[in-house]
Amino acid sequence: MLAAQFPVFPVIIPLLSAPLAALMPNRLLAWLLALAVSLVVFVTAIFLAISVYDGTIISYAVGGWVAPYGIEVRIDAFSALMLLVVSGASTLALLTAKPSIDQDIAADRQPLFYAAWLLALAAYGGIAVAGDAFNIFVFMEISSLASYVLIANGPHRGALPATFKYLVMGTVGASFYLIGVGLVYMMTGTLNLADLSQRLMNAPHLHPVMLAAAFVTIGLALKAAIFPLHVWMPNAYAKAPSAVAVFLAASATKVMLYVLFRFDFLVFGGALALHDLHFASFLMPLALLAMIIGSAVAMREQNIKRMMGYSSVAQLGYILLGATLLSTAGLTAAVVHMFNHAMIKGGLFLAIAALVVRIGGADLKAFEGAGRRMPWTMAGFVFLGMSLVGVPLTAGFISKWVLVEAALEQGALGVALIVAILISSLMAVVYIWRVVEVAYFRAPADDLPPPREAPLVMLIPLWGMVGLNIYFGLDPHIPMELAGHAAQILMEHAK
Amino acid sequence: MTDRFILSAILLIPAVAAILIAFLARFPNLRDGLGLIAAFALTIMVWCLLPGVMAGDRPQLILFDILPHVPLAFRIEPLGMVFAALASLLWIISTIYSIGYMRGNKEAHQGRFFALFAVALFAVMGVAMASNLLTLFIFYEVLTLSTYPLVTHKGDANSMRSGRVYFGVLIGASIGLFLPAIIWTYSLTGTLDFQSGGILDGHIAGPALGLMLGLYVFGVAKAAVMPFHKWLPAAMVAPTPVSALLHAVAVVKAGVFTITKVIILIFGYDFLFNSGMGSWLVPVAAFTIIAASLVALQQTNLKRMLAYSTISQLSYIVMATAILAPLSQIAAILHIVAHAFGKITLFFAAGSIYTASKKTEITQLNGIGLRMPITMGAFAIGALSMIGVPPTAGFVSKWYLLSGAFAVENYIAIGTVVLSTALNAGYFLPIIFRAFFRAEDVPPPLDHKEANVPIRIALIATSLLVLVFFVFNGPVIDLVMPIVEMRP
C-alpha cells in the first residue's frame, strides 16, 4: 500500500519535515534530520527509477482527483532521472556538509538553514514530478526562495550581492514563465501538461501560443543559466556556503533545463508547426557560444569556485546542444550528460569544499602545494577533472561519445559541431590543468600550518563519487536506458 | 579457460604490482624485489602465449559492453603478441637498470616512480592486447596519464614546462583527432573490432578516406609523426630509465603499433592500397625521417639527440607500413623490435654515463670510452643498429624495408632510406670516435669508472639482444606472416 504513495514522497516528506528542522534545538539534530529526510527521498527516487526503468509511466492523482481536473503527479523515466539527480546531490551535499557548514554558518542559525535546505529539496523534487504547469511554477518559486536563503548564508559579505543578483534575475525568469503559462491557459483552459499538448493542437489562435513559447523559453533559459543569461550563476555558486554549492551546482540549473525540454518538446513542439526548428536555430548558437565562451572565461578565472561555475555554463551548453540536434540520439546525449555532469560537478564542488575546509579560501593562489598537503583530496579532484574533460574510463567520456555520435548524424553541420565540442574539451583540459599545476608544482608558502587531510566524512564520499564516475564510465547502461526512454518521450510529438 | 586466466593475469600483474609498490614505498629492497618479480611473472605469462599464437590461436577475453557492440575486450593477434612480448621482456631489463640508476643518482620519490612505471606497463599490455579501438584508446590514454608524473618527476619549473608540452600534445591530439576518427569509424560501420581485412571497406571512399587516415596518423601523436613530435624531446627531462623503456620503447611503440594495427586491421591493406588514398603518408613520413635526422645532427645534449633519432626511426615504421607492400610490412614489425633493442641500449648508455660522471653533453664525451668500455661498447652496438650495419638488428629491418619498397617501386622510400642512413652515420659515428679515439682534454671533475653493477648487467643484456636479433629473427617473421600474406 505504501509503495503506491511513493510518487508524492519526494515532495511531502521534505516539505513536512522542513518546519521540524526549524524547531530543532541544536544544529546536530537539525543536520541529522535533514540528512535522514534527504536519504529517504533518495531511496524513494531509486525505487521510482527502478519501476519506470522499462519505460512505464506512473500517474498519481493527488487526493484522488483525476487529471486534468485534479493535480497530477507524473513520473516517467525523465522525471525519475531528475529525482535521482536532485536527491542524490542533496544527500551527497548533506552527508559531507557538517565540517564546512559549521565553519560557514553560526550555530544558532543552522536549524533554519537546514529547514530552507529541505524546502529547496521538496521544491526541486516537486518540479521533477509535477504534471501541470502551475504546480511547476509554485515549486519553482519555493525552490528559488529557499535557494536565496541558502546562498545568502555564504561566509563572506559578497554572498549578499550575489544573492540579490540571483533574486532579481530569478524573479524575472519566473515572471516570464508565468506570463507564458497564463497565455496557454487562456487559449486552452487547462494547466495539465499532457492535456495542454492535446488541446493546443486545436487552439483557435496560434499567435498567443507562439508568444507563450517565447516567454516560457526565455524565462526558463534565465533560470537554467543558459548563455548569455548565465551572469547570476558563477557568483551565486562561488559565494554560497561550500556545501550549498555542491547541492545547487549538481541539480538546480538542470531541473530548469528539464522543465524547458518538457515545455518545448511536449507542449509547444506538438502544437506549433516548425517550433522545433525555431527552438534549435535559436538555442543552438547559444549552446555553442556557451561551450566556447564559458570555457574561455574558466581558463582565465582566478577563483576555483567561479572557474567551476563558468565550466558549468559550458557544460550546460553541451546539454543544450544535444537537445537542439532534435533527434533521439541528441536528446539521449543531453539527458545522459545531465546525469553525468551532476555527478562530476557535484564531486568537484565537494573536493573544493574539502580543500576550502582546510585551506580557508578558494583562490587559485591558496591551492599552492595542495597536492602535497592534501594528496587524497587533490587526487580525487584530478580524477573528477578528468571526467569533466572526458577522458576514457570516466562518465564524462560516455557523455562526449554519445554527443559526438549524435552530432555525426547531422552531416556537414555535425562536423562543425564536433569541432566546437572538441575545442571546448581541450579548453577544459587547460583550466583543470591550471589547478593541477598550482597544486602539484608550486611549493606551499612557508608560514602555513602543517598539512592535514580533509575530514574522512568528506573524503570517503568524494572517493565514492570518483568510483561512481568510473563505474558509469565503464558500464553506462542505467543512465543510458533512462535517458533513452526520456528521449523517446520527448520526441514522441515528432511522429 | 586458461586463455582467460593468462590474459587476466597479464593485465593484473602490473596493476597489482603498482598498488603493492605504492604501499611498500618505504621499504626499498622489498619494493624493488617485488617489481622485479612482477616483471618476470609478466614476461613468463606473455611468453606462455607465444607457441599458441604461432600455431594460429587467438586467445581472447571479453569483459562487458561499454557501448552497443563495443565491449571492453582483449584478443591476442600476432602484432600485439610481438609488442607485448617485447615490452614485457624489456621491462625486466629496465627494472634492473632502474634500480641501479635511481639508487646511483639518489633520486627522490622512488616508490611513486616504480609504481607509476608498473601502471604504464599495465597500460601498454592493454594497448597490445586490445581487440577493438575503444579498448585500445582507453589504455592509450591511461598510458599518457600515467607517464605524465614520470616525465615531471623532478618537479622543478623546467619539468613543469616540459610536462605541459608532453601532456598538451598527446592529450590534445588524441582528443582532438584520434577520438573523432574512432567515433567516425563507429558511426560508419557500427563496430570497432580489429578484423583481418579491415572493417571500413565499402563504408567510405574518396578524399574522406584520406582525411580519416590523417586523423588516425596525426591523432596517434605517440608515433611522433611531424608536426606532432614536440612532446618527445620534451619528455627527455624525465629520469633516464623512463626515457629508455617508455620513450624509446613502450610509449612510442604503442603509437606506431596503433598506426600499424589501424592500417592493417581497420582500413584493410587492399582497401587502402586500391583506393590510393594512403599514398600521401609515405612522403610525410619520409619528411619526418629526414627532418628529424637533420635536427638530431645539431643537438649537443645526448638525450635530446637520441630523442630526435627516435622520431626519425619511428617514421621508418610508419613509412614501412604506408608503403603497403607485404615485405615492408614485415619490415615495420621487425623494426619495432630492432629499434627497441637498439634505442634502449643507447639510452641505458646515456644514463650510465650520467650516473658515473654526471655528463649530459656530447662535447664532454672525449675519451670516455677508455673509462667506461662496457657502456661505450654497448653504445657503439646500439648506434650501429640505428645506422643499419650488420651484424646488428637494424640491418635486418632495413633490408626488408628496401625489399618491400623495390617490390612496389616506391622510389621516395628508397631515397629516404639511403639518405637517412648517411645522416644516421653522420651523428652517431662522431660520438663513437670521440669516445674511443680522442684524448680527454681536461681530466673530469669526477674521477669515475663504469657505473654500478645493475646498470652494467642491463647494458650487456640489451646489446646482446641487438646482436642476437640479427640472426634470430625468424620467429617474428613466422609470427606476422599470416597477417601479411592476406594480400593476393
Automatic annotation (TrEMBL), chain A:
It is a multi-pass membrane protein. InterPro entries: CPA3_Na-H_Antiporter_D, NADH_UbQ_OxRdtase, ND/Mrp_TM. GO terms for cellular component: plasma membrane. The chain crosses the membrane at residues 6-24, 31-53, 73-95, 111-130, 136-154, 166-188, 208-231, 243-261, 277-298, 318-340, 346-364, 376-399, 411-433. It is found in: Cell membrane; Membrane. The keyword Transmembrane helix applies. One of its GO terms (molecular function) is NADH dehydrogenase (ubiquinone) activity. It comes from the Bacteria. Pfam families: Proton_antipo_M (PF00361). Keywords: Cell membrane, Membrane, Transmembrane, Transmembrane helix. Residues 130-420 form the NADH:quinone oxidoreductase/Mrp antiporter transmembrane domain. The keyword Iron does not apply. GO terms for biological process: ATP synthesis coupled electron transport. PANTHER family: NA(+)_H(+) ANTIPORTER SUBUNIT D1 (PTHR42703:SF1), NADH DEHYDROGENASE (PTHR42703). Belongs to the CPA3 antiporters (TC 2.A.63) subunit D family. This is Cation:proton antiporter. It comes from Iodidimonas nitroreducens. The lineage of its organism: Bacteria, Pseudomonadati, Pseudomonadota, Alphaproteobacteria, Iodidimonadales.
Automatic annotation (TrEMBL), chain B:
It comes from the Bacteria. It is found in: Cell membrane; Membrane. Belongs to the CPA3 antiporters (TC 2.A.63) subunit D family. Keywords: Cell membrane, Membrane, Transmembrane, Transmembrane helix. It holds the Pfam family Proton_antipo_N. PANTHER family: NA(+)_H(+) ANTIPORTER SUBUNIT D1, NADH DEHYDROGENASE. Residues 130-423 form the NADH:quinone oxidoreductase/Mrp antiporter transmembrane domain. It comes from Iodidimonas nitroreducens. The chain crosses the membrane at residues 6-27, 34-54, 79-101, 113-130, 136-153, 165-184, 204-225, 245-268, 280-298, 305-327, 333-356, 368-391, 411-433, 453-472. Its main location: membrane. This is Cation:proton antiporter. InterPro entries: CPA3_Na-H_Antiporter_D, ND/Mrp_TM, Proton_antipo_N. GO terms for cellular component: plasma membrane. Residues 69-114 form the NADH-Ubiquinone oxidoreductase (complex I) chain 5 N-terminal domain. It is a multi-pass membrane protein.
